Structure formats: C-alpha cells, structure tokens
Amino acid sequence: MSLLEIKNLRARVDDREILKGVNLTLNAGEVHSIMGPNGSGKSTLAQVLARRESYEITGGEVLFNGRDLLAMKPEEAACEGLFLAFQYPVEIPGISNAYFLRSALNAIRKYRGLDEMDAMDFLPKLREKLKLLDMDDKLLNRSVNEAFSGGEKKRNEILQMAVLEPKLAILDETDSGLDIDALRIVANGVNAMRSPERAILVVTHYQRLLNYIVPDRVHVLVDGRIVRSGGPELALELENKGYGEMDGAARGASPA
Amino acid sequence: MSSNTDATIRELAQQEYKWGFVTEIGEDRAPKGLTENTIRLISTKKSEPEFMLEWRLKAFRYWDSLEKAQAEPKWANIKYPPIDYQAISYYSAPKQKPNLKSLDELDPEILRTYEKLGIPLAEQKMLAGVAVDAVFDSVSVATTFKEKLAEVGVIFCSFSEAVKNHPELVKKYLGSVVPYTDNFFAALNAAVFSDGSFVYVPKGVRCPMELSTYFRINAAETGQFERTLIVADEGASVSYLEGCTAPIRDENQLHAAVVELIALDNAQIKYSTVQNWYPGDKNGKGGIYNFVTKRGACRGKNSKISWTQVETGSAITWKYPSCILQGDDSVGEFYSVALTNNYQQADTGTKMIHIGKNTRSTIVSKGISAGHGQNTYRGQVKIMKEAAGSRNYTQCDSLLIGDKCGAHTFPYIEVKNSTARMEHEASTSKIGEDQMFYLRQRGLKTEDAVSMIVNGFCKRVFKELPMEFAVEAQKLLSVSLEGSVG
Ligand SMILES: Nc1ncnc2c1ncn2[C@@H]1O[C@H](COP(=O)(O)OP(=O)(O)OP(=O)(O)O)[C@@H](O)[C@H]1O
Ligand SMILES: [Mg+2]
Asked: If you measure from the C-alpha of residue A39 to the centroid of ligand 1, how many angstroms do you get, rounded to a whole number?
C-alpha cells in the first residue's frame, strides 16, 4: 500500500479552480519533488493535503496510509503523521518556541495513546535536534517565529519536523530565503530524516536543493495539473529550459 | 471558520460554569430593602463602635440623595436594566457560633465549599504557604495563618475584627483613599458593607507570605459589599491576592466592593485579582454586576502600587483600579486581562494621577472579546503641574474572536507639566485563520489552539501574577473561552 495516493484531486477557492485533477502516488521511503511556475498550485496542493479548510474540494480522492485524508481535520491529519513545513511560517506572539513544540508533540502523543512528555524528558530531545540543525538555543525561549529572520523561520520548520517525526513531510519552498550554508545544513537535516517508513514531498523552484536532497521522482505542476514526471534529471532539464515548453502540455496532460 | 470548527465549538459551548453550585447552610439575613434602619441593623449585628455607625449613616444619606436624584453613573459603556435597590437584602451571614477559635468550628459545609473551589483553607493545605481570608456572602469566615503573621507584626484579619481590635488604624485610613462621596457605588458600599479584609504591614516589614482573600457569593437575592483596606507602612511590602466565584442564578446579583491601598515611604503593595464571578448563561441571563471601586495611594516617596487583574467573570464589570502617585518617585502599575464572552460586558481600565515629581506609571491592558461580548478599556493619565519629570507608558491591545463582539478604547490624557513623557501604543487584532491553521497543523485541537493564542496575547500580564495564580488564570481563560470561536 502506498503512503499517499492522490487521485484526480480538484480544489478551488472563491469560485476559482486551482487544482484541476492532480494525480500522485508516494510510497514510504521515497522522496519526491514538485516543481512548477509561480501560482501553479504547489502551495495549494500542500495546504489541501494538510486540510486547510479555506480550500474547497471539488473532486477526487486522497488516501493517506489507506485512510480518507480529505475527511480529516487539520489536527487529525497532523496526528496521523502528516507534517507541512510552511512556505510562510506563522508568528505566535507570547508563546515560546519550546513550549509550542512540546504542546504539539504531546497533542500527537496523546492522540496515539502515548504518555505526555514532561519538560525534563523533552528538553534533551529538543537540544539534540537543535544541534543537528545548528540552531541557537536562544530561539527556544523566543516566541514562535516572532522577529525570526527569514532563514531562522525556515530552519525552525525543519526543527519542528525533526521533533514531531512525521510519516509524511511536505516541505513547501523550505529552501527559499536560506543562505548557502543554511541550505546545506537544512538539507542534511532533511536527509537525516529519510527512512524506509517515511516519505518526503519537497516543493521547490531550485534544482540546487535537489543536489543535496536527491529525489526519487520529480513532478512538474503547471496550472493545477502534473504535466510531467521523471527522475532527478528532470530538474536539471527544467533548470536549463524553463517551464515554457510545458504550458502546451498542460492541456490534456496525462497523469504521472 | 468552517463547519468542522463550528461543531467543536457548539459542543464546547454547552460546557457550564464549574463554580456554580449552591451551598446549603443556615443563613442569617436582613429583610430586603435599604433604609437607615438597615444600616443600624448591620452595625448592631456587628457590634460596631459608634464612629463606624456614624460614618455609615453619613454615607447612606449621601447615597440616598444620589439615588433620589437618579445619579447612578451612566457614563460607562455598559447596558443593564435599572437596579431596584429595595429588592436586595443587604446582610447575609452563614449561621455559626460567634468567635471561632479554630477552623474546626467552621460550618463543614462552608469548608467543603472552599475545598471545591480549591482554596487552601483546610489545615493540611495551609502548608501551601498562602494566608487566606475567606468571605462567604458578606462575612469573613476564616483567616488562616494569623499567628504566624502576628509574630512579625502583620495584621491580617476580617474588617469586622479590625474595627474591634484596631479602631485607631481603621479610623485613620478608612475612606482616606476612596471617600464615601467618591461615587454612587462607593457610597452604597460605605453604608452597607458587612465585611472584608484588613491588612497592616508595619514599618520595615516584608510580609513573609502571600496574603489572599477568597470571595464567595452564596445566598440568593443578596448583594455583596465587601471592603478591603491595606496599609503598608514605611519600607513595608506585601503581595495580596483576591479570587471570587458565585453560584449560577437566573437573577443578576450586585457586587459593589471598595478596595483602598495605602503605601507610605518606600513601601510596596502588589494587588492581584482573578475575578471569576458567575458571568450569566450563554444567552446573557443572570450573572453578577461587578461594580467595584479600587484605588491605591502612593503617599510616601519612592512607594509603589501594582495592580494586576484577570477579569473573566461577571455579567457586567465596571472597575478602574487606580493609583494616586503623591510621593516623589512613586510608581503605579496596572496590568489587566479582561475577557468578555457570550453577552458579558466589561468597562474597565485605570487612572494614574501623577502628583509627585518623577512619578512613573505603566499601563498594560489586554482586552479579549468573544461571542457577543463588549469590552471597553477606559483609562485616564493625568500629570499635574507639580509632577515634573513624570512618565507614563500605556499599551492597550484588543483581541477579537468572531464578528459579533466589540472592543472599544477610551484613553484620556491630561498633561499639565511639559517635562512629562508619555508613550501610548494600541492595537486591535483578530485571531487569524493562518494562526489557527498553523497550530492545528501541528496537532493542536481548535480550542487548544485558541487558548494558546489568547494566552500568548496575555503573556505580558500573566508574568506579573504570582506563579500559582498565573497557572490558574491560564486555565480559567481557557475555560471562559470555551465555545467562543465562530
Ligand atoms: N486562499 C486563496 N485565496 C485566493 N486565491 C488563492 C488562495 N490560495 C491560492 N490562491 C491562488 O491560487 C493560485 C495558486 O497559488 P499557490 O500558492 O498554490 O501557488 P504556488 O504554486 O505555490 O506558487 P509560488 O511558486 O509562487 O509559491 C495563485 O494564483 C493564488 O493567487
Ligand atoms: Mg507556493
């Protein structure tokens, strides 16, 4: 059984259709990448999968671990092991990063019938992940994402992923805004998470990231449809040629 | 928000006020109505000295003249039907043996009530280290830790005892900050108050423990009119906590309290309130009218008075804990969280009156409105001519949950000395769908996400509360918010 099966998914917002029939299958252990022009629907796909309620599903089906993902609330999807690293991480003033992370972890543990973790057990775990991402301790006591630099916010998303250990991680342009060293560190963090039980979906504009996180498959999303799929070499091709030639393919494109 | 969210919220909205039980006890109650005879009856019941009766009568006559002139204050941004002051009973006391020697003699029903409320009244809980005075309906029923406090000279007792045992202190300070002529409700309180707490911390003494009063309205068709007087003598310091709850009743009940604080040279008073009077049901039926006058006088130089309040209860809150900064270099602070849900109304804020030189004040107000709640911040900062070099910092933030509630801000600023420095920041925000989605994507349920955002919003104020009170306040906020997102 595949970990994620998206069949002919359609979604719209404000009467405007954005996803126009997306098909995608992801097995545990795989890393896939989604590329595509601005506004093609990559973030929409990511957020629909994470069950953001402002997007209306108008067709299709998604199975996550064999369960109907589209029937889940965001927190259920999260507790079932779906994690989204946001393209634009959100600030939560007055709530410390460490407290937030522990609350999130405990919400998920509770859902799974595990004991909650107290601060004493949690902190060592957190520090270890912090080291992995070469992050400053100080970010733990600061309010979630508040006054974080662009790069710090992105790194913080990956820190959360590392702590929450999801089955499926969707990274929405985690590389944008990262300097060259940070890109390598974050990529290492992601690679450390690769495992036979876990799948990762990487949304990016840049082939550069895929030099570090080498994907099993690359998909090209244009105007709400996946118009091409291929191996890592597809990313290189896009880097050279751009998306121009693919627009035509968007019409009547066949699923990956 | 979506239908999923709505469903959770509707479920939560069915949750009830958890402190709404009624205690069955014998009760000694005055007949309804308010005349000079009522005042005499209260004074006699309490075997008060002549000076108290005289003061009460003066207050009553003043109040009566206001009432006849229909001069009940109308300027606040609150709405309620006229109160029939003759339909209220002004004295209700649990029947008990007079002069309790120990807590064992207290009516076990009352003790059980306080246990349910989590008040550390029972002996074993006293180890928690908080001295408690408990006011049940109108009378103080128990003051713990009295002996230990007496060793360092701190007087902490019911107001009635203070009148009997320390009349000179009461005479000197009673009404010196809030005179009975101050306002309609202060006059009413002065006339009929039946008990309250009294604290005196002598020169140079730091009170060795937190002092705490728990107010409980139990009886029906009564008002609660308690009075608190705290005096910190030169170089003294004290931290005082106040909590309140009431049973669920369909009719509105009046609570008109007065609190007076006096800080002499280099003295400090920290006064914290977690107010959770019954707020009425989700349709706005019942609930406490909380019309309270709280004021502190920084009389001495370099003295400091700090108010922290978390107001989650009451149908209507009308309350402006204030500071009169008389002494040079004195400091006044006001930290407030006020939450209105369902049909609750709050008009609350502070007054900072700068008289002495180099006086400083800080105001941090966090208003949260949900449901049909109406939340008003009303604040006044006044810098008098003599108050050279004075400073005020005001931060006033409102958070809206849903689109049927309201937030209003009325800051009044009056500066008569050009060397004063004023800073004012204000903001109004809504709980964002993006914040909610972010938190839920990390696994938090809707209600936990809301309460996390709100607690973050209130952080600056919670930091001012004593530790265990801060925890209680956070929980209370979550409970009060249940059913609020829509
Ligand atoms: N909540 C929304 N309300 C209105 N329009 C939206 C909303 N979300 C997405 N859209 C629109 O849908 C289209 C797809 O947006 P989306 O964010 O999914 O693109 P993207 O592929 O992630 O682009 P980028 O590469 O720039 O991040 C855009 O035209 C966007 O303006
Ligand atoms: Mg995007």
From this structure: 5
B370 phi/psi in degrees, rounded to 5: -135, 170
Contacts of A166 (CB under 8 A, 6+ apart): A81, A82, A83, A198
CB contact at 8 A, A155 and A135 = yes
pLDDT in tens, chain A (256 residues): 799 999 999 999 998 999 999 999 999 999 999 999 999 999 999 999 999 999 999 999 999 999 999 999 999 999 999 999 999 999 999 999 999 999 999 999 999 999 998 888 898 999 999 998 888 888 888 999 999 999 999 999 999 999 999 999 999 999 988 998 999 999 999 999 999 999 999 999 888 899 999 999 999 999 999 999 999 898 888 888 888 766 544 444 444 4
* % of chain B surpassing 90 pLDDT: 43
Distances (CA, A) of B446 to A16, A157, A163, B486: 27, 21, 21, 11
- Confirm or reject: Cβ of A43 under 6 Å from ligand 1: yes
Residue nearest to atom 9 of ligand 1 (CA): A44
Answer whether B459 sits within 8 Å of A86, measured CB to CB.
no
Q: What tokens does A2 get? A: 């595949």
Query: What would the two tokens of residue A129 be?
Result: 């992940």
CA distance B60 to B171: 18
ipTM for the predicted complex: 0.95
The answer, yes or no, to whether any atom of ligand 1 lies below 6 A from the CB of A44, is: yes
Its pTM stands at 0.82
β-strands A16-26, A4-13 pairing: antiparallel
Of B262, B334, B271, whose CA–CA distance to B303 is shortest?
Answer: B262
Contact A13 CB / ligand 1 (< 6 Å): yes
| Residues of A at the B interface, defined by Cβ within 8 angstroms | 47, 50-54, 73-75, 77-79, 83-84, 86, 89-95, 100, 103-105, 107-108, 111, 143, 160, 164
Contact B25, B110 (CB under 8 A): yes
Strand, helix or coil at B421?
A: strand
Cβ of residue B453 closer than 8 Å to a chain A Cβ: yes
Name every residue whose Cβ is closer than 8 Å to that of residue A181 and which is 6 or more positions away in sequence: none
Compute how many other C-beta atoms are within 10 angstroms of the C-beta atom of residue B209: 17
B25-46 pLDDT per residue, tens: 556 666 778 899 889 988 988 8
pLDDT at B130 exceeding the cut of 70: no
Contacts of A195 (CB under 8 A, 6+ apart): A29
Residue A97: closest C-alpha in chain B? B456
Output the pLDDT for position A255: 45
CA of A48 to the centre of ligand 2 (A): 12
Tens-place pLDDT, residues B49-106: 999 999 999 999 999 998 888 777 788 787 888 888 888 878 776 655 444 555 555 5
Task: Indicate if ligand 1 lies below 6 Å from the C-beta of A39.
Answer: yes
Q: What pLDDT is stored for residue B186 in this prediction?
A: 94
Q: Which residues in chain B have their CB less than 8 angstroms from residue A92's CB?
A: 435, 438-439, 452-453, 456
Q: How many whole angstroms separate alpha carbon A115 and alpha carbon A207?
A: 42
Instruction: Decide if A73 and B4 are in contact by the 8 Å CB cutoff.
Output: yes
Contact criterion met (CB below 8 Å) for B298 and B330: yes
Q: Which atom of ligand 1 is nearest to the CA of A87?
A: 27
Task: Give every CB contact of residue A180 below 8 A, 6+ residues apart in sequence.
Answer: none
Nearest to B35 by CA among B151, B191, B195, B240: B191
Ligand 1 close to Cβ of residue A240 (< 6 A):
no
A–B CB contacts, 8 A cutoff, strictly below: 81
CA distance to partner chain A, nearest, from residue B368 (Å): 15
Q: Among A20, A40, A201, say which to mutate for ligand 1: greatest number of ligand atoms within 8 Å of CB.
A: A40
